Amino acid sequence: MAAGLGPDQPLYGIRCAELNGQPLRATSLEELARSYTERIRALYPHGPYVLYGVSFGGLVAIEMSRQLKASGEDVPVTILGDTWAPIALRPRLALRERLAVRLGEMRRMSAGERGRRVIWLAKRQFAHRVVRAGSDARTERQQLRMLARAIRRGEPVPVEARGRHVLQQYAGLMAEHQVRPPFPERVLLLRTDGPGDVPDRGWRVLVGDALEIVDVPGSHIDLGREASGAYVAPVLAQALNHVQ
Question: The domain 2-86+178-241: what is its CATH number?
Answer without folding.
Answer: 3.40.50.1820
